[in-house]
């Protein structure tokens, strides 16, 4: 009897263990899709990172990421300023289709389908952290421009967001010497505040703003891991948007530079440290190889900082608010260890509208054919397959009250653009003249005319979308 009971116990135990193993395997198999992190800097110029040739700025983590994945030489923002570009990232559509023509102009429309909404349906936990700038984040806020449209209305489960810019050091206080928007006489900050899941935040808001953001992103990722859920984290830093301030530790890294550049580079290095901290966390949790990281800036360097030589568009002309390459071409990289070949330097002309279709293709999710996208997938680049963009793309922004309506249209080597207010349409060979020194409008009038007609067709498509063709209110 004892032996019979003993063997019976062994059999029952064995089947129990097999069941536990099966359950464990089933649980582990739930998270088969890659985690995705979209990181964006704010007003970071093409020449403001080490991986694009800046010898003074300290960005070891970004530089290593660029060497370990894909570095884009020709990555474009959908607009030379913040809100429109951010709209393009989340939807794969030109901001002109959405009525987001400039900063604080309108807000993300409820009918626009975002990456977060798509991924949520695919079983992802979704989190947003940092600068939203696609609508107000406080329901009772009433201002002259914009409207209430927070990230949790657009597919995000966890949010820690500001409406727009804050100081990059001590984001609840007016920086010393700052007298522009947001400044308060009592030393408090009169601009945007942090709101977490709909509630104003009062704790852990001192010191480096990039650290404050990552302090909220990491627990979200940890929670997703504990629930064995793939995650989609959108991390949009405020750095190095004005007021750009660095803490003492980071100022000390640049003792030989003028004070203004110490703050600018110091804030960038602080952001780089936090990106390194994030990567170290992914590695510690053994999910680094199953996590895709995309990094870019929302536009070129800010006007006043670029004009003073503090910020840099690298070899390109112009800056934020202009359609020159310096306003549109931004630093960018993609990293997916053991999936993307190391050390790819791509001349492919990608842009911020391409993120949406790229992610859909990676996940083998079909796009809605009724809704036109402006972006195309650059997944072939990640696979080392193609290096030439076959579909032209357009960029631009409007502030009609100030008589500003600027456009650029890029088709391979050639670009037409109205660079700045009061300019005529110009034509450049950006492959051989990336600094845009030689306007070819008079030399190649037929090409100019052809590209202008193509741009008009795109603009008409944009107009049809924003006036109701794509969805019903």
TrEMBL record:
<dbReference type="InterPro" id="IPR024607">
    <property type="entry name" value="Sulfatase_CS"/>
</dbReference>
<dbReference type="InterPro" id="IPR017850">
    <property type="entry name" value="Alkaline_phosphatase_core_sf"/>
</dbReference>
<keyword id="KW-0732">Signal</keyword>
<keyword id="KW-0479">Metal-binding</keyword>
<feature type="signal peptide">
    <location>
        <begin position="1"/>
        <end position="24"/>
    </location>
</feature>
<feature type="domain" description="Sulfatase N-terminal">
    <location>
        <begin position="34"/>
        <end position="364"/>
    </location>
</feature>
<comment type="similarity">
    <text>Belongs to the sulfatase family.</text>
</comment>
<protein>
    <submittedName>
        <fullName>Arylsulfatase A-like enzyme</fullName>
    </submittedName>
</protein>
<dbReference type="InterPro" id="IPR050738">
    <property type="entry name" value="Sulfatase"/>
</dbReference>
<dbReference type="GO" id="GO:0046872">
    <property type="term" value="F:metal ion binding"/>
</dbReference>
<dbReference type="GO" id="GO:0004065">
    <property type="term" value="F:arylsulfatase activity"/>
</dbReference>
<keyword id="KW-0378">Hydrolase</keyword>
<keyword id="KW-0106">Calcium</keyword>
<dbReference type="Pfam" id="PF00884">
    <property type="entry name" value="Sulfatase"/>
</dbReference>
<dbReference type="InterPro" id="IPR000917">
    <property type="entry name" value="Sulfatase_N"/>
</dbReference>
